[in-house]
């Protein structure tokens, strides 16, 4: 038996997290997920069970309306009825300014929260190792995965990966092959999110956003290319590498 969590966006529900398979009459998962809401108002919970003859069966589902009247920055326990099942879960809400806050690392050899130029100079690479390693792993076993880069990874796995890349790259090299692929994409997103400055830079980002929203296609293309050429060379290399992977 396993549970999937989906949130609504523009009239559709998208899967954001999935538990491991647990057996028994009263399965316990004890897993943590960080789910990006992006303006979503409803959390849909689906419970599935593998039947030996009928295959995968939906055991129950529920819709949980997300509201600040009960969802806040402290863990709140909810008992959710899934037809003949009851799921007990704890939730808390973190505002975007908390999850996107960029705090520089205080360690000279740090990776997460470190200046991108310092990382590349230390590694003697134009694209940080953690970026290329995550991308290689996604391209090895994740390109056909539904919801890649959208579904949340397991928080505990992402934490383990983060610590490994910070302290023991050899251990990280092995661990990244073993964890769920959504934890790998979660690690990459976390690394980019914790950079002291976004790859598009604080100064140019508003202009990128403005140009991208321009109605005139030719103006949009010309302006975006001009802005891109204004970025530091390292930033250009990393963005180009990621775009080649994603597009």
Automatic annotation (TrEMBL):
GO MF annotation, one: GTPase activator activity
Domain Rho-GAP stretches: 114-247
GO cellular component, one term: membrane
Cited SMART domains: RhoGAP
SUPFAM superfamilies registered for this protein in UniProt: C2 domain (Calcium/lipid-binding domain, CaLB) (SSF49562), GTPase activation domain, GAP (SSF48350)
Any single biological process term in GO: signal transduction
InterPro entries tied to this protein: Abr/Bcr, C2_domain_sf, Rho_GTPase_activation_prot, RhoGAP_dom
TM region(s), chain numbering: none
Descriptive protein name: Rho-GAP domain-containing protein
Source organism of this protein record: Halocaridina rubra (Hawaiian red shrimp)
Lineage, opening ranks: Eukaryota, Metazoa, Ecdysozoa, Arthropoda, Crustacea
């Amino acid at each position: 038996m396993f549970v999937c969590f989906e949130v609504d966006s523009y009239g559709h529900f998208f899967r954001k997290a999935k538990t491991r398979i647990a057996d028994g009459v009263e399965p316990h998962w004890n897993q943590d997920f960080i789910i990006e809401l992006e303006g979503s108002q409803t959390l849909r919970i689906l419970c599935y069970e593998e039947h030996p003859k009928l295959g995968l069966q939906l055991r129950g589902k529920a819709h949980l309306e997300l509201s600040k009247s009960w969802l806040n920055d402290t863990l709140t326990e909810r008992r959710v009825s899934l037809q003949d099942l009851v799921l007990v879960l704890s939730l808390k809400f973190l505002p975007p300014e908390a999850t996107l806050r960029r705090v520089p690392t205080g360690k000279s050899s740090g990776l997460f929260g470190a200046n991108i130029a310092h990382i590349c100079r230390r590694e003697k690479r134009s694209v940080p190792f953690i970026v290329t390693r995550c991308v290689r792993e996604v391209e090895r076993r994740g390109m056909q995965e539904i919801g890649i880069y959208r579904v949340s990874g397991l928080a505990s796995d992402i934490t383990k990966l983060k610590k490994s890349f910070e302290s023991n790259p050899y251990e990280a090299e092995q661990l990244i092959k073993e964890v769920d692929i959504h934890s790998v994409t979660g690690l990459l997103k976390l690394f980019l999110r914790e950079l002291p400055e976004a790859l598009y830079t604080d100064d140019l980002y508003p202009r990128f956003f403005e140009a991208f929203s321009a109605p005139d296609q030719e103006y949009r293309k010309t302006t975006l290319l001009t802005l891109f050429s204004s970025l530091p060379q390292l930033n250009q290399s990393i963005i180009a590498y990621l775009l080649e992977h994603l597009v």
